[in-house]
Amino acid sequence: MPEGGASIPKSTESGASGGSVVEAAAHGTPAATPEQRDAVAVPRTGLLVTFILGGLTAVTPLAMDMYLPALPEVTRSLNAPAATVQLTLTACLAGMALGQLVVGPMSDRWGRRRPLLVGLAIYVVATAQCAFAPTVELLVACRLAQGLAGAAGIVIARAVARDLYDGVALARFFSTLMLISGMAPILAPLIGGQVLRFTDWRGVFVVLTVLGVLLTALVWTKLPETLAPADRHGGNVGDALAPMRRLLADRVFTGYMLAGGFAFAALFSYVAASPFVMQEIYGASPQTFSLLFGLNSIGLMIMGQVNGKILVGRVRLDKALGAGLAVVVAAATALLLMSLGVFGETGLVPVAAALFVLMSSMGIVMPNTQTLPLMRARHAAGSASALLGTTSFLIGAIASPLVGIAGEDTAVPMAVVQLASALVATACFLGMCRPWKNGTSTKGGGV
Protein backbone atom coordinates (compact mmCIF):
# COMPACT_ATOMS: atom_id res chain seq x y z
CA MET A 1 0.00 0.00 0.00
CA PRO A 2 1.38 3.45 -0.83
CA GLU A 3 2.46 5.72 1.94
CA GLY A 4 -0.36 8.00 3.00
CA GLY A 5 1.86 11.05 2.98
CA ALA A 6 3.69 10.30 -0.23
CA SER A 7 2.98 12.62 -3.10
CA ILE A 8 3.47 12.47 -6.84
CA PRO A 9 5.42 15.28 -8.48
CA LYS A 10 3.28 17.63 -10.52
CA SER A 11 3.54 17.47 -14.30
CA THR A 12 3.00 20.79 -16.02
CA GLU A 13 4.42 20.49 -19.53
CA SER A 14 4.63 24.23 -19.14
CA GLY A 15 6.71 24.91 -16.06
CA ALA A 16 3.85 26.18 -13.99
CA SER A 17 6.02 27.22 -11.09
CA GLY A 18 5.90 30.78 -12.29
CA GLY A 19 2.76 32.71 -13.09
CA SER A 20 3.95 33.90 -16.49
CA VAL A 21 4.72 30.38 -17.61
CA VAL A 22 1.27 29.19 -16.49
CA GLU A 23 -0.30 31.92 -18.58
CA ALA A 24 1.80 30.97 -21.57
CA ALA A 25 0.82 27.33 -21.23
CA ALA A 26 -2.87 28.14 -21.17
CA HIS A 27 -2.43 30.38 -24.20
CA GLY A 28 -0.63 27.58 -26.01
CA THR A 29 2.67 29.46 -26.42
CA PRO A 30 6.04 27.71 -25.95
CA ALA A 31 7.15 29.70 -22.91
CA ALA A 32 8.74 26.82 -21.00
CA THR A 33 12.50 26.64 -21.05
CA PRO A 34 14.30 23.53 -22.42
CA GLU A 35 15.17 22.55 -18.85
CA GLN A 36 11.51 22.76 -17.83
CA ARG A 37 10.39 20.71 -20.79
CA ASP A 38 13.01 18.05 -20.04
CA ALA A 39 11.89 17.93 -16.41
CA VAL A 40 8.34 17.01 -17.35
CA ALA A 41 8.94 14.91 -20.44
CA VAL A 42 8.01 11.72 -18.59
CA PRO A 43 4.35 11.47 -17.44
CA ARG A 44 3.96 11.49 -13.69
CA THR A 45 1.07 9.02 -13.51
CA GLY A 46 0.81 5.50 -14.74
CA LEU A 47 -1.98 4.15 -16.90
CA LEU A 48 -3.54 2.39 -13.90
CA VAL A 49 -3.83 5.62 -11.89
CA THR A 50 -5.41 7.31 -14.90
CA PHE A 51 -7.99 4.54 -15.16
CA ILE A 52 -8.65 4.73 -11.40
CA LEU A 53 -9.38 8.46 -11.65
CA GLY A 54 -11.56 7.82 -14.68
CA GLY A 55 -13.41 5.14 -12.73
CA LEU A 56 -13.96 7.53 -9.83
CA THR A 57 -15.61 10.06 -12.15
CA ALA A 58 -17.75 7.32 -13.73
CA VAL A 59 -18.94 5.42 -10.64
CA THR A 60 -21.90 7.66 -9.78
CA PRO A 61 -23.04 8.13 -13.42
CA LEU A 62 -23.00 4.33 -13.62
CA ALA A 63 -25.17 4.21 -10.50
CA MET A 64 -27.63 6.56 -12.22
CA ASP A 65 -27.75 5.03 -15.70
CA MET A 66 -27.56 1.30 -14.89
CA TYR A 67 -30.69 1.72 -12.79
CA LEU A 68 -32.82 3.39 -15.49
CA PRO A 69 -34.04 0.22 -17.28
CA ALA A 70 -35.25 -1.15 -13.93
CA LEU A 71 -37.54 1.76 -12.95
CA PRO A 72 -40.81 0.14 -14.13
CA GLU A 73 -39.93 -3.05 -12.27
CA VAL A 74 -39.16 -1.10 -9.08
CA THR A 75 -42.60 0.51 -9.30
CA ARG A 76 -44.29 -2.89 -9.43
CA SER A 77 -42.00 -4.56 -6.89
CA LEU A 78 -42.42 -1.94 -4.16
CA ASN A 79 -46.05 -1.08 -5.01
CA ALA A 80 -45.07 2.57 -5.26
CA PRO A 81 -46.29 5.36 -7.55
CA ALA A 82 -44.04 6.15 -10.51
CA ALA A 83 -43.55 9.71 -9.22
CA THR A 84 -42.24 8.38 -5.91
CA VAL A 85 -39.87 5.98 -7.64
CA GLN A 86 -38.57 8.91 -9.71
CA LEU A 87 -37.49 10.47 -6.41
CA THR A 88 -34.81 7.77 -6.19
CA LEU A 89 -33.12 9.45 -9.17
CA THR A 90 -33.62 12.94 -7.78
CA ALA A 91 -32.21 11.90 -4.39
CA CYS A 92 -29.09 10.42 -5.94
CA LEU A 93 -28.54 13.50 -8.11
CA ALA A 94 -29.04 15.86 -5.16
CA GLY A 95 -26.61 13.78 -3.11
CA MET A 96 -23.98 14.00 -5.82
CA ALA A 97 -24.38 17.78 -5.95
CA LEU A 98 -24.35 18.49 -2.21
CA GLY A 99 -21.80 15.84 -1.27
CA GLN A 100 -19.14 17.60 -3.29
CA LEU A 101 -19.48 20.72 -1.15
CA VAL A 102 -18.61 18.63 1.92
CA VAL A 103 -15.91 16.39 0.52
CA GLY A 104 -14.01 19.07 -1.42
CA PRO A 105 -12.95 21.16 1.60
CA MET A 106 -12.32 17.96 3.60
CA SER A 107 -9.81 16.81 0.97
CA ASP A 108 -8.02 20.16 1.12
CA ARG A 109 -7.70 19.79 4.91
CA TRP A 110 -6.95 16.07 5.40
CA GLY A 111 -5.52 15.06 2.04
CA ARG A 112 -7.13 13.17 -0.82
CA ARG A 113 -6.89 9.51 0.27
CA ARG A 114 -8.70 9.51 3.61
CA PRO A 115 -11.89 11.35 2.50
CA LEU A 116 -11.92 9.33 -0.71
CA LEU A 117 -11.64 5.97 1.03
CA VAL A 118 -14.28 6.92 3.61
CA GLY A 119 -16.59 8.08 0.85
CA LEU A 120 -16.10 4.90 -1.15
CA ALA A 121 -16.74 2.75 1.91
CA ILE A 122 -20.02 4.55 2.63
CA TYR A 123 -20.94 4.29 -1.07
CA VAL A 124 -20.47 0.52 -0.98
CA VAL A 125 -22.61 0.15 2.17
CA ALA A 126 -25.36 2.44 0.83
CA THR A 127 -25.42 0.63 -2.52
CA ALA A 128 -25.70 -2.74 -0.79
CA GLN A 129 -28.58 -1.40 1.31
CA CYS A 130 -30.34 -0.30 -1.89
CA ALA A 131 -30.33 -3.92 -3.01
CA PHE A 132 -32.26 -4.99 0.10
CA ALA A 133 -34.50 -1.94 0.65
CA PRO A 134 -38.01 -3.22 1.56
CA THR A 135 -39.82 0.08 0.91
CA VAL A 136 -39.50 2.89 -1.59
CA GLU A 137 -38.94 5.40 1.23
CA LEU A 138 -35.89 3.50 2.44
CA LEU A 139 -34.69 3.16 -1.16
CA VAL A 140 -34.89 6.95 -1.59
CA ALA A 141 -32.87 7.44 1.63
CA CYS A 142 -30.24 4.92 0.53
CA ARG A 143 -30.00 6.54 -2.90
CA LEU A 144 -29.42 9.91 -1.22
CA ALA A 145 -26.61 8.39 0.85
CA GLN A 146 -25.25 6.70 -2.27
CA GLY A 147 -25.09 10.04 -4.10
CA LEU A 148 -23.57 11.89 -1.13
CA ALA A 149 -20.81 9.31 -0.72
CA GLY A 150 -20.24 8.77 -4.45
CA ALA A 151 -19.62 12.50 -4.82
CA ALA A 152 -16.23 11.88 -3.17
CA GLY A 153 -15.03 10.09 -6.29
CA ILE A 154 -16.07 12.89 -8.62
CA VAL A 155 -14.69 15.82 -6.64
CA ILE A 156 -11.46 14.18 -5.48
CA ALA A 157 -10.61 12.81 -8.94
CA ARG A 158 -10.58 16.39 -10.25
CA ALA A 159 -8.59 17.58 -7.23
CA VAL A 160 -6.01 14.81 -7.71
CA ALA A 161 -5.67 15.80 -11.37
CA ARG A 162 -5.03 19.40 -10.27
CA ASP A 163 -2.44 18.16 -7.76
CA LEU A 164 -0.60 16.28 -10.48
CA TYR A 165 -0.90 18.58 -13.48
CA ASP A 166 -0.99 22.20 -14.52
CA GLY A 167 -1.33 24.20 -17.70
CA VAL A 168 -1.31 22.24 -20.94
CA ALA A 169 -0.87 18.92 -19.11
CA LEU A 170 -3.98 19.53 -17.01
CA ALA A 171 -6.14 20.23 -20.07
CA ARG A 172 -4.85 17.10 -21.79
CA PHE A 173 -5.43 14.96 -18.73
CA PHE A 174 -9.03 16.14 -18.39
CA SER A 175 -9.59 15.21 -22.02
CA THR A 176 -8.26 11.72 -21.24
CA LEU A 177 -10.57 11.44 -18.22
CA MET A 178 -13.49 12.40 -20.46
CA LEU A 179 -12.60 9.53 -22.78
CA ILE A 180 -12.77 7.06 -19.87
CA SER A 181 -15.74 8.45 -17.95
CA GLY A 182 -17.61 9.15 -21.20
CA MET A 183 -18.03 5.42 -21.66
CA ALA A 184 -20.35 5.30 -18.62
CA PRO A 185 -23.50 6.65 -20.32
CA ILE A 186 -22.89 4.34 -23.29
CA LEU A 187 -22.25 1.13 -21.38
CA ALA A 188 -24.40 1.61 -18.27
CA PRO A 189 -27.86 1.13 -19.84
CA LEU A 190 -26.53 -1.84 -21.83
CA ILE A 191 -25.06 -3.44 -18.70
CA GLY A 192 -28.23 -2.72 -16.73
CA GLY A 193 -30.37 -4.29 -19.43
CA GLN A 194 -28.23 -7.41 -19.53
CA VAL A 195 -28.25 -7.72 -15.74
CA LEU A 196 -32.05 -7.58 -15.79
CA ARG A 197 -32.12 -10.57 -18.12
CA PHE A 198 -30.73 -12.74 -15.32
CA THR A 199 -32.03 -11.09 -12.16
CA ASP A 200 -34.38 -8.38 -10.91
CA TRP A 201 -33.71 -4.72 -10.14
CA ARG A 202 -31.98 -5.62 -6.87
CA GLY A 203 -29.33 -7.44 -8.87
CA VAL A 204 -28.35 -4.14 -10.49
CA PHE A 205 -27.39 -2.79 -7.08
CA VAL A 206 -25.49 -6.00 -6.29
CA VAL A 207 -23.39 -5.45 -9.42
CA LEU A 208 -22.84 -1.81 -8.45
CA THR A 209 -21.77 -2.93 -4.97
CA VAL A 210 -19.19 -5.32 -6.41
CA LEU A 211 -17.85 -2.57 -8.70
CA GLY A 212 -17.61 -0.24 -5.69
CA VAL A 213 -15.64 -2.82 -3.71
CA LEU A 214 -13.21 -3.35 -6.59
CA LEU A 215 -12.69 0.39 -7.04
CA THR A 216 -12.14 0.86 -3.30
CA ALA A 217 -9.51 -1.88 -3.34
CA LEU A 218 -7.71 -0.23 -6.28
CA VAL A 219 -7.73 3.16 -4.55
CA TRP A 220 -6.45 1.57 -1.30
CA THR A 221 -3.55 -0.21 -2.97
CA LYS A 222 -2.66 1.84 -6.03
CA LEU A 223 -3.56 5.51 -5.57
CA PRO A 224 -1.02 7.42 -3.46
CA GLU A 225 -1.63 10.63 -1.59
CA THR A 226 -1.16 13.59 -3.97
CA LEU A 227 -1.56 16.51 -1.56
CA ALA A 228 1.52 17.03 0.58
CA PRO A 229 0.90 17.82 4.28
CA ALA A 230 2.50 21.24 3.85
CA ASP A 231 -0.14 22.17 1.26
CA ARG A 232 -3.15 21.21 3.40
CA HIS A 233 -5.46 23.69 5.13
CA GLY A 234 -5.79 23.56 8.90
CA GLY A 235 -8.17 25.21 11.33
CA ASN A 236 -11.88 24.81 12.00
CA VAL A 237 -14.83 24.42 9.65
CA GLY A 238 -14.89 28.15 8.94
CA ASP A 239 -11.25 28.05 7.91
CA ALA A 240 -11.96 25.08 5.64
CA LEU A 241 -14.76 26.98 3.91
CA ALA A 242 -12.73 30.17 3.53
CA PRO A 243 -11.18 29.07 0.20
CA MET A 244 -14.68 28.65 -1.24
CA ARG A 245 -15.58 32.20 -0.27
CA ARG A 246 -12.39 33.51 -1.88
CA LEU A 247 -13.02 31.48 -5.03
CA LEU A 248 -16.57 32.79 -5.36
CA ALA A 249 -15.22 36.32 -4.95
CA ASP A 250 -12.91 35.70 -7.91
CA ARG A 251 -14.91 37.04 -10.85
CA VAL A 252 -13.01 35.04 -13.45
CA PHE A 253 -13.26 31.74 -11.55
CA THR A 254 -16.99 32.29 -11.03
CA GLY A 255 -17.40 33.11 -14.72
CA TYR A 256 -15.84 29.83 -15.78
CA MET A 257 -17.83 27.97 -13.14
CA LEU A 258 -21.15 29.40 -14.36
CA ALA A 259 -20.22 28.89 -18.01
CA GLY A 260 -19.49 25.24 -17.29
CA GLY A 261 -22.67 24.86 -15.24
CA PHE A 262 -24.96 26.24 -17.93
CA ALA A 263 -23.18 24.27 -20.64
CA PHE A 264 -23.82 21.19 -18.52
CA ALA A 265 -27.48 22.22 -18.35
CA ALA A 266 -27.66 22.11 -22.16
CA LEU A 267 -26.19 18.61 -22.03
CA PHE A 268 -28.52 17.53 -19.22
CA SER A 269 -31.59 18.75 -21.09
CA TYR A 270 -30.54 16.54 -24.00
CA VAL A 271 -30.26 13.51 -21.70
CA ALA A 272 -33.66 14.22 -20.14
CA ALA A 273 -35.59 14.97 -23.33
CA SER A 274 -33.94 13.04 -26.15
CA PRO A 275 -35.64 9.66 -25.47
CA PHE A 276 -39.06 11.30 -25.83
CA VAL A 277 -38.13 13.68 -28.66
CA MET A 278 -36.38 11.12 -30.83
CA GLN A 279 -38.88 8.29 -30.33
CA GLU A 280 -42.28 9.88 -29.77
CA ILE A 281 -41.99 12.95 -32.00
CA TYR A 282 -39.59 11.87 -34.73
CA GLY A 283 -40.46 8.18 -34.80
CA ALA A 284 -37.14 6.56 -33.94
CA SER A 285 -37.30 2.99 -32.70
CA PRO A 286 -35.72 2.16 -29.33
CA GLN A 287 -32.85 0.52 -31.19
CA THR A 288 -32.33 3.57 -33.40
CA PHE A 289 -32.45 5.86 -30.38
CA SER A 290 -29.86 3.73 -28.58
CA LEU A 291 -27.62 3.90 -31.66
CA LEU A 292 -27.96 7.68 -31.94
CA PHE A 293 -27.38 8.14 -28.20
CA GLY A 294 -24.22 6.08 -28.46
CA LEU A 295 -23.01 7.98 -31.55
CA ASN A 296 -23.48 11.29 -29.75
CA SER A 297 -21.48 10.03 -26.77
CA ILE A 298 -18.74 8.82 -29.12
CA GLY A 299 -18.72 12.22 -30.84
CA LEU A 300 -18.28 13.91 -27.45
CA MET A 301 -15.35 11.63 -26.60
CA ILE A 302 -13.69 12.11 -29.99
CA MET A 303 -13.86 15.89 -29.72
CA GLY A 304 -12.49 15.60 -26.20
CA GLN A 305 -9.46 13.88 -27.67
CA VAL A 306 -9.20 16.49 -30.43
CA ASN A 307 -9.16 19.10 -27.68
CA GLY A 308 -6.49 17.28 -25.67
CA LYS A 309 -4.27 15.98 -28.47
CA ILE A 310 -4.55 18.69 -31.13
CA LEU A 311 -5.89 21.99 -29.78
CA VAL A 312 -4.22 22.12 -26.36
CA GLY A 313 -0.72 23.52 -26.72
CA ARG A 314 -1.51 25.04 -30.11
CA VAL A 315 -4.59 27.14 -29.39
CA ARG A 316 -5.34 29.24 -26.32
CA LEU A 317 -7.71 27.41 -24.01
CA ASP A 318 -9.97 30.46 -23.97
CA LYS A 319 -10.16 30.44 -27.77
CA ALA A 320 -10.97 26.73 -27.85
CA LEU A 321 -13.67 27.25 -25.21
CA GLY A 322 -15.14 30.21 -27.09
CA ALA A 323 -15.23 28.25 -30.33
CA GLY A 324 -16.90 25.30 -28.62
CA LEU A 325 -19.58 27.53 -27.07
CA ALA A 326 -20.20 29.20 -30.44
CA VAL A 327 -20.84 25.82 -32.08
CA VAL A 328 -23.18 24.80 -29.24
CA VAL A 329 -25.16 28.04 -29.70
CA ALA A 330 -25.35 27.48 -33.47
CA ALA A 331 -26.53 23.87 -33.08
CA ALA A 332 -29.12 24.83 -30.45
CA THR A 333 -30.38 27.64 -32.70
CA ALA A 334 -30.78 25.20 -35.59
CA LEU A 335 -32.70 22.80 -33.34
CA LEU A 336 -35.05 25.55 -32.20
CA LEU A 337 -35.72 26.71 -35.77
CA MET A 338 -36.45 23.14 -36.84
CA SER A 339 -38.71 22.59 -33.84
CA LEU A 340 -40.65 25.76 -34.69
CA GLY A 341 -41.11 24.61 -38.30
CA VAL A 342 -39.15 27.47 -39.84
CA PHE A 343 -37.64 25.06 -42.38
CA GLY A 344 -40.90 23.24 -42.95
CA GLU A 345 -41.45 19.70 -41.80
CA THR A 346 -38.15 18.18 -40.72
CA GLY A 347 -37.44 14.53 -40.13
CA LEU A 348 -35.23 12.57 -37.79
CA VAL A 349 -31.98 12.95 -39.74
CA PRO A 350 -31.50 16.75 -39.53
CA VAL A 351 -32.56 16.81 -35.87
CA ALA A 352 -30.17 13.95 -35.06
CA ALA A 353 -27.38 15.75 -36.97
CA ALA A 354 -27.90 18.97 -34.97
CA LEU A 355 -27.88 17.05 -31.69
CA PHE A 356 -24.70 15.26 -32.76
CA VAL A 357 -22.97 18.59 -33.44
CA LEU A 358 -24.17 20.00 -30.12
CA MET A 359 -23.07 16.99 -28.10
CA SER A 360 -19.72 16.65 -29.88
CA SER A 361 -18.93 20.30 -29.15
CA MET A 362 -19.28 19.53 -25.45
CA GLY A 363 -16.07 17.54 -25.82
CA ILE A 364 -14.29 20.88 -26.20
CA VAL A 365 -16.39 22.92 -23.79
CA MET A 366 -16.46 20.65 -20.75
CA PRO A 367 -12.72 19.91 -20.29
CA ASN A 368 -11.81 23.58 -20.66
CA THR A 369 -14.49 24.82 -18.25
CA GLN A 370 -12.84 22.54 -15.69
CA THR A 371 -9.20 23.26 -16.57
CA LEU A 372 -9.32 27.05 -16.64
CA PRO A 373 -10.96 27.60 -13.22
CA LEU A 374 -8.84 24.91 -11.55
CA MET A 375 -5.73 26.68 -12.80
CA ARG A 376 -6.81 29.63 -10.68
CA ALA A 377 -7.13 27.45 -7.57
CA ARG A 378 -3.57 26.33 -7.11
CA HIS A 379 -3.89 25.78 -3.34
CA ALA A 380 -7.59 24.90 -3.03
CA ALA A 381 -8.21 22.30 -5.70
CA GLY A 382 -10.65 20.33 -3.56
CA SER A 383 -12.83 23.34 -2.80
CA ALA A 384 -12.68 24.50 -6.41
CA SER A 385 -13.61 21.04 -7.67
CA ALA A 386 -16.53 20.93 -5.23
CA LEU A 387 -17.88 24.27 -6.45
CA LEU A 388 -17.54 23.26 -10.09
CA GLY A 389 -19.29 19.94 -9.60
CA THR A 390 -22.07 21.22 -7.38
CA THR A 391 -22.86 24.12 -9.69
CA SER A 392 -23.06 21.85 -12.73
CA PHE A 393 -25.32 19.29 -11.07
CA LEU A 394 -27.64 21.86 -9.50
CA ILE A 395 -28.08 23.92 -12.66
CA GLY A 396 -28.53 20.73 -14.67
CA ALA A 397 -31.10 19.40 -12.21
CA ILE A 398 -33.08 22.65 -12.42
CA ALA A 399 -32.94 22.77 -16.22
CA SER A 400 -33.84 19.15 -16.97
CA PRO A 401 -37.52 19.26 -15.80
CA LEU A 402 -38.14 22.31 -18.00
CA VAL A 403 -37.78 20.29 -21.20
CA GLY A 404 -41.24 18.77 -20.71
CA ILE A 405 -43.03 21.90 -19.59
CA ALA A 406 -45.10 22.24 -22.79
CA GLY A 407 -46.30 18.65 -22.94
CA GLU A 408 -45.42 15.68 -25.09
CA ASP A 409 -46.15 16.97 -28.60
CA THR A 410 -43.29 19.36 -29.23
CA ALA A 411 -39.49 19.51 -29.05
CA VAL A 412 -39.52 23.30 -28.61
CA PRO A 413 -38.94 23.25 -24.81
CA MET A 414 -35.80 21.12 -25.20
CA ALA A 415 -34.42 23.43 -27.88
CA VAL A 416 -35.32 26.56 -25.88
CA VAL A 417 -33.60 25.23 -22.73
CA GLN A 418 -30.52 24.23 -24.72
CA LEU A 419 -30.25 27.57 -26.52
CA ALA A 420 -30.93 29.62 -23.37
CA SER A 421 -28.36 27.60 -21.43
CA ALA A 422 -25.76 28.00 -24.17
CA LEU A 423 -26.38 31.73 -24.44
CA VAL A 424 -26.10 32.25 -20.67
CA ALA A 425 -22.90 30.15 -20.63
CA THR A 426 -21.45 32.32 -23.40
CA ALA A 427 -22.51 35.52 -21.64
CA CYS A 428 -20.84 34.40 -18.38
CA PHE A 429 -17.68 33.48 -20.28
CA LEU A 430 -17.45 36.77 -22.17
CA GLY A 431 -18.82 39.08 -19.50
CA MET A 432 -17.01 37.71 -16.45
CA CYS A 433 -13.88 36.01 -17.77
CA ARG A 434 -13.12 38.64 -20.44
CA PRO A 435 -10.82 36.33 -22.41
CA TRP A 436 -9.60 39.08 -24.72
CA LYS A 437 -7.57 40.52 -21.86
CA ASN A 438 -4.25 38.69 -22.01
CA GLY A 439 -3.37 36.99 -18.74
CA THR A 440 -6.63 37.77 -16.98
CA SER A 441 -8.14 34.34 -17.41
CA THR A 442 -5.19 32.04 -17.07
CA LYS A 443 -2.82 33.23 -14.41
CA GLY A 444 -2.54 31.07 -11.34
CA GLY A 445 -4.80 32.16 -8.56
CA GLY A 446 -3.68 32.67 -5.02
CA VAL A 447 -6.48 30.68 -3.42
What does this structure look like?
By secondary structure, the protein is an all-alpha fold. It starts with 18 loop residues before the first helix and ends in a 14-residue tail after the last helix. The protein is built from 17 helices and no strands. The N terminus and C terminus are likely disordered.
Radius of gyration: 21 Å
Which residue ranges are poorly predicted, with pLDDT under 50 across at least 5 consecutive positions? Answer: 1-9, 12-43, 440-446
- Multimer state: single chain
**How many helical stretches?**
17
The coarse silhouette is globular
Mean pLDDT: 80
Key descriptive features of the protein:
single chain, 447 residues, mainly alpha, 17 helices, 0% strand, disordered C terminus
Topology summary:
Layout (H helix, E strand, L loop, with lengths): L18 H9 L6 H6 L7 H19 L5 H7 L4 H29 L2 H19 L4 H29 L2 H15 L2 H15 L2 H22 L14 H13 L1 H31 L4 H26 L5 H23 L8 H27 L6 H19 L12 H22 L14
Helix pairs in contact: 3-7, 3-8, 3-9, 3-10, 5-6, 5-7, 5-11, 5-16, 6-7, 6-10, 7-16, 8-13, 8-15, 9-10, 12-15, 12-16, 12-17, 13-15, 14-15, 14-17
